[in-house]
Amino acid sequence: MTPVVEKIGAAVDQWVAANQAALSATRRHLHAHPELGYAEFETTSFLEERLRHHGLTPRRLPTGTGLTVDVGAGGGPVVVLRADIDALPLNDLKEVPYASTREGLAHACGHDVHTTVVLGVAVALASLDGLPGTVRCVFQPAEETVPGGATEVVASGVLDGASRAFALHCDPSIPAGTIGLRTGPITAACDRMDVTLTGPGGHTARPQLTVDLVDALGRLITDVPGLLSRQVDPRTGMSLVWGAVNAGVAANAIPQRGQLRGTVRVLDREAWKGAEELMRSLVTRVAAATGAEVDVDYIRGVPPVVNDPRAVALMRSAALETVGSDHVVLSAQSMGGEDFGWFADVMPIALARLGTHGGGAPLDLHRGTFDVDERALGVGVRLLARTALHALEADAEPQHSGPPAPPRTRRPAPGDTSSRPSVEETHRR
Ligand SMILES: [Zn+2]
Ligand SMILES: [Zn+2]
């Protein structure tokens, strides 16, 4: 630990010890007032007011919700801490004083915790002198949508000039006071594919005179996943699983139209890039043998979050100082999606798992019963503050400056939301 990390890190520890109740109050306020993706107006105003109150100058994102704020005296390296601020369209089933006050809306993915943690880091660091660079806190909208509010953050340019980005996500499978880390992929990509087959229809007595659409659907159902397993490296974990099949009504009539819907999940980012082309080609090849007309609607979701080894190493130093080696665990790769993966288009990233289980029955994300042990809030603040300090120190040292940031590979025009599906259509996981 360098003297700067030691000194400012200890000051953050003191800040957390003195502000535990305030952190809980913030989290409970957010928890009671959830808002859906791109509609987080009250949440954004709340954050704006709190940041201004502590002498900071937040700027709204071009999307209208979400904001970014720079902490530090200016100059030096810039590192990003990212929180997501949106909630889910489901009922809060908990009987607690801070339960959601809004019918059909709940912070069931812990984004209230992520927001409280990054706000806490911003306020804590703003009260301290000697920060060796700039900590850019990004409060991002609409994580729970496809392709996710992270795409708007990347497109808006607010990440320009930063060297690395860090985030955390609640993990109810590990106890509060524990931090999960993993180098490489930590979440999965999940795309959606809808296949529509059409044909002339006809009598089941004479399939030779038409296209047997139900038979064609059956071939696609079994042959496409089967062929896929022989066309991709099994280690990429690419899988196609159908979730819906619909065609026909009468026992003796061949229908004119049938539809399949399924999800494509991929653990590997490179393989994900080629997934759409591969799926379209497999479906087209199998359908061609049947004579049916085929239309494929492929909806790309989010890429896997692939944790950069160096960024994880910085986070590990912070985690060891925060909770000690007995409480830093290896995190498993999740099949869930997380739009923070888009940040990796422009810089190295690392996402940590923040243990939130406080004992009692097992809890899971995206359920109305989800709650956290609020001791995790202080752990999160200390972890991300120290991570930022380590990263600033590393990026200030010439011997660790490393190669320049990778070139941008994906940057849609700012404000280009023309292809953004609605929250209802896109809610996932
Ligand atoms: Zn979620
Ligand atoms: Zn989440």
TrEMBL record:
<feature type="binding site">
    <location>
        <position position="169"/>
    </location>
    <ligand>
        <name>Mn(2+)</name>
    </ligand>
</feature>
<keyword id="KW-0464">Manganese</keyword>
<dbReference type="GO" id="GO:0004046">
    <property type="term" value="F:aminoacylase activity"/>
</dbReference>
<feature type="binding site">
    <location>
        <position position="111"/>
    </location>
    <ligand>
        <name>Mn(2+)</name>
    </ligand>
</feature>
<feature type="domain" description="Peptidase M20 dimerisation">
    <location>
        <begin position="193"/>
        <end position="287"/>
    </location>
</feature>
<keyword id="KW-0479">Metal-binding</keyword>
<protein>
    <submittedName>
        <fullName>Putative amidohydrolase</fullName>
        <ecNumber>3.5.1.14</ecNumber>
    </submittedName>
</protein>
<dbReference type="Pfam" id="PF07687">
    <property type="entry name" value="M20_dimer"/>
</dbReference>
<dbReference type="InterPro" id="IPR002933">
    <property type="entry name" value="Peptidase_M20"/>
</dbReference>
<dbReference type="InterPro" id="IPR017439">
    <property type="entry name" value="Amidohydrolase"/>
</dbReference>
<dbReference type="InterPro" id="IPR036264">
    <property type="entry name" value="Bact_exopeptidase_dim_dom"/>
</dbReference>
<dbReference type="InterPro" id="IPR011650">
    <property type="entry name" value="Peptidase_M20_dimer"/>
</dbReference>
<dbReference type="GO" id="GO:0046872">
    <property type="term" value="F:metal ion binding"/>
</dbReference>
<dbReference type="Pfam" id="PF01546">
    <property type="entry name" value="Peptidase_M20"/>
</dbReference>
<feature type="binding site">
    <location>
        <position position="144"/>
    </location>
    <ligand>
        <name>Mn(2+)</name>
    </ligand>
</feature>
<feature type="binding site">
    <location>
        <position position="109"/>
    </location>
    <ligand>
        <name>Mn(2+)</name>
    </ligand>
</feature>
<feature type="binding site">
    <location>
        <position position="366"/>
    </location>
    <ligand>
        <name>Mn(2+)</name>
    </ligand>
</feature>
<feature type="region of interest" description="Disordered">
    <location>
        <begin position="393"/>
        <end position="429"/>
    </location>
</feature>
<keyword id="KW-0378">Hydrolase</keyword>
